[in-house]
Design goal:
Radius of gyration: 24 Å
Strand content: under 5%
Order of helices and strands: HHHHHHHHHHEEHHHHH
Structural class: mainly alpha
Number of helices: 15
Shape: globular
Largest sheet: 2 strands, antiparallel
Distance between the termini: 50 Å
Number of strands: 2
Helix content: 55-70%
């Protein structure tokens, strides 16, 4: 009985399927990770405004134009300030638009970020988490520039700075954590399910109207659902809680805080839990999918 050569035996074996995994979410050291994140954010900045006559100016002008239209409609046509005027309504509207625009820009930009860089992801080995984080970093830079305009507008309206303005960095950090967590989750989901983008566009619109942007929690508190004040329901939404607290901190010390609007400090743990829970979920899911992103593109 003759025994075949090892090469012949190997040839007769059934082929085995091997998965080739790509880099993980975080990759190498932190220094390289953040260097790549900043580099990709700079690249995003250059590509976004390449060939544009006004360049970065559009980032500042667009929310201001949107603010102008809404202010005209709600104060001149619908006259929302009739009867019980909302203190500093123009400033509150602008502040809320800018903060929500940051959230929307971050999440919507993250959704197609991995698919849009398919060629780069297939050819270069680098931490996959760099991609959505660079989108969030770019949006955070835009927010910083827009907040400068907001502060100028607030000061010009006669509002004096107070120590409560120091709450704003904390509120922005919470909003950034929420937006980044959702961005990580959505970007990884979009690689597998392309319906995520239109679904998220609808959800974003619901969040826009379901957050106290065009109105305040005081207005919402006049209405109830199953015996529960709409104000409490709105502030369970983390964006609603952040906007409510930002209004009190920057514009109107007499306005209800997020704690008062939701009905107590204990209940305020709900939006906090949502923020950090979504961030943890997004990081976990992205880290799980990161090695297979190139394969699934």
């Amino acid at each position: 009985m003759s025994v075949g050569a090892p090469s012949e035996l190997a040839a007769k074996r059934p082929p085995q399927s091997h998965r080739v995994y790509g880099p993980s979410a975080l990759g190498g050291g932190l220094q390289r990770f953040w260097a790549l994140t900043f580099m990709l954010a700079r690249t995003e900045f250059k590509l976004r405004f390449f060939g544009s006559a006004f360049g970065y100016l559009w980032t500042l002008v667009r929310p201001l134009l949107f603010f102008g239209v809404l202010l005209f409609v709600f104060t001149k046509i619908l006259d929302v300030n009739r009867g019980s005027p909302i203190p500093h309504y123009p400033e509150y509207l602008l502040e809320s638009i800018i903060l929500f625009t940051f959230f929307q820009e971050t999440t919507s930009g993250c959704v197609p970020s991995l698919v849009g860089r398919e060629n780069l992801l297939r050819k270069v080995r680098f931490p996959r988490l760099v991609v959505p984080l660079s989108v969030a970093l770019f949006s955070l830079f835009n927010l910083g520039m827009n907040l400068v305009v907001v502060f100028i507008f607030i000061l010009a309206s006669g509002v004096s700075p107070t120590v409560t303005w120091l709450e704003l960095p904390v509120l922005v950090a919470l909003l950034a954590i929420l937006a980044t967590g959702l961005g990580m989750l959505l970007s990884a989901l979009y690689v597998r399910f392309r319906d995520i983008q239109p679904i998220w566009e609808v959800i974003s619109q619901v969040l826009w109207y379901g957050s106290p942007i065009l109105y305040t929690v005081q207005t919402a508190s006049k209405h109830h659902l199953f015996g529960i004040s709409f104000a409490r329901i709105l502030v369970i939404n983390p964006i609603g809680a952040i906007l409510t607290q930002a209004r009190k901190a920057l514009l109107d010390p007499a306005a209800p805080s997020a704690v008062r609007a939701i009905g107590g400090t204990g209940r305020l743990l709900i939006p906090f839990a949502i923020v950090f829970g979504l961030f943890a979920l997004g990081l976990w899911y992205f880290n799980r999918e990161a090695p297979r992103i190139s394969e699934n593109l």
